[in-house]
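For practice. Any example?
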Amino acid sequence: MNSSLSQPKLTSGVLWLMAISSGLIVANNYYNQPLLGLMAEDFQVSESEISGIPMFTQIGYACGLFFFIPLGDMFKRKRMILIDFIFIIMALIAMSLSKSVKLLLPISFIIGFTSVIPQLFIPMAATLATPEEKPKAVGIVMSGLLVGILGSRVLSGYVGDFFGWREMYYIATVIMIILFVLIYFKLPEVYPRFKGTYKELMLSLIQLFKTDSSLRLAALRGGLSFAALSAFWTPLVFHLQANFHLDEHMASNIAGKFGLVGACGAITAAFMGKIIAKSNKNNFLTNSILLILSSWVIFYFSGYSFWGLILGVIFIDIGVQAAHITNQSIIFSGNPNVANRVNTIYMTSYFIGGALGTYISAHAFQYFNWNGVVYTGGGITLLMLVCHWISLKK
C-alpha cells in the first residue's frame, strides 16, 4: 500500500476533534495541582511530600513521550490511541480509590505515561495539513491542549472545593469513556511510514538528536520554559494557604480559578501560528522569554496581591505558549516522516524540565516561602535567555 495515497485529508471536523480531545486528555495531568492541599490534609503529609504527585505525573508523561509516542511512526495511530485509552481509564479509577500517598505516586506516573495521546495528535495535524496550513493546524490543536491544561485547574478547583478530590477523578473517568467512543467512530486511521524494528526506531532518536542542532536548542528552550511555568503553578495553592490565609478548600477553588486567567495564553495560541509563520522566529523567541522573565519580576514585587498574581499569570502563560509554539514550528518544518520522533525528543525534554521545576520549586517554597519560588522561576528563565542568546551568536 502506498501510504502517501492512503493518508486522509485533514478536515475541519477531524482537526477540532483532535483539538478538543487533546484538551480533555491532557487535563488528566493537571487536575492534581489545585487539589494538592486537600490531598495533603486527607493523608496528613507535608507540602513537599504531596508535591511528588505532580512531579511523578510529569515524569510519567516524559517517559510516555520517549517510549510510546515514537510508535506513532511505526503503527496505526488510531489503534494505538484506543488501546491507550483503556489504560488511562484504569489509572483514573485507581487514583480515585487509592488509600495511600505511596500508591498515588506510581498511579500518577501511569496517568502521566498514558495521557500522552495529544502528542500523537499534534504531529498528525502537522502531517495531514497542507504546507501553508501547517502552522495554523498545529496552533489549533495546541489551543485545545492549552485550554485543557488551564480548564482542568478550574474544574478540579471547583470540584475539590464542593465535593472532594476523589470525585474529580471519577468525573475524569466518565469524560474519558465518552471521548473513547467519539474517537472510535470519528477519528480516521493514519498509517505508519517507518518500516524498521522498535530498536531501530529508538536508535533513530539518538541520531536525530545528534544531527539536528535546531532540535537540540528547541528541546533545551522548551524544557526550561516548562520548568519555569511548573515552578509557579505547583506551589500556588500552598502560597494561597500560607500567605493569603485561606483554608484548603478555598485555596483549591481560587487556585483553580487562576486557570481562567491563564486562558489568555491558550486563546492566543490559535492565532500565534499565523504570526510565527511571518516573523523572525529567533526574535519572536527572545521576546517570548523576556515576557516570561517580566512575569517573575511582577511575582517578586506584587506576588502577595491577587492583582499581581493575575497579571503575572497572564504574562507567563502567553510567554511560555508563544515560545512553545515557535519551537514546534521550527522542529516540524523538516521531514514529516519523522514528525513523531522529533516531537518525542522535544516533548520529553519539555516534561523533564517541568518535573525538575516542580521538584525544585516545591522545596524552595517549603524552606524559603514565596521568595524561594520567585528566585527559582526567575533563575530558570534567566538561564533560558542566556542559552538562547549564546545560540544566536553561534
